[in-house]
What does this fold into?
Amino acid sequence: MTNDHLVYHDDSFASTYQLWKDKKTGFLSTFPFGAFAFARLDDRLKDEPLWKNAPHGEGRDPMGLSPKQPNVEYFTTECYGGPKQYDQFPIDHKHAFSMITELFSPRSKGTVTLKSADPRQNPIVDHNYLSDPLDLLVLSEGVRLGNEVVMKGKGTQEVVKGSWPSNLTHHKYTEREDWVPYVRQHATTCYHAAGTCKMGSPDDTMAVLDEKLRVRGVKGLRVADASVMPTLHGGHTQMPGKSTQSLRLRGT
It folds into this structure.
């Protein structure tokens, strides 16, 4: 189920690195993820008052998604990995992997403001993650479902022993409420940045670009990558972003 023995155990990393240097093969030449999956959470959330009473458009759920669009995505790492705080590697011949739950169509909105008139100073970025209670509801339920799949699934229930590092116990959580503080503490982003230079119609005062991707108020400048998206799409931004990468900041 994992290949962390190729990186963390004994002198494996040195041999793995040498294999990459010599032949460009092995662990460092592969994509470090395993299975990907998607899920709708309608049945699991249908009795939640926040979900039932939230406003939504016709044919859409409270997150703005259609019944054919997933609420969450799961993917697994084939070794112990993730955010930089995950630094307690299983070097003693134990094996660990991570399972990531990603929230689609988040409702929380952050801000980007100028710190000063000096263009050399970084702007003030407030991501404001999980400020909308629906985001926290859906993500915590998604994590709960993912844990059930791992701990109770026919292919894993006799193999996976519990949380890692071994002093943690979140694999024993059974209720969504149990997961809420865990999600608040550990949720982060995959940095699929988008929507920072919104395109829009002439009457949209929040749009940085016009409908032809021209920067308003700047002559001869366009933006053509994932930053032009008015709203985040339900997938990985590499797909639409990669196709326009070569066009970025080209003159008109």
User: Anything to note?
Assistant: The longest strand covers residues 33-39. The first helix runs from residue 12 to 23.
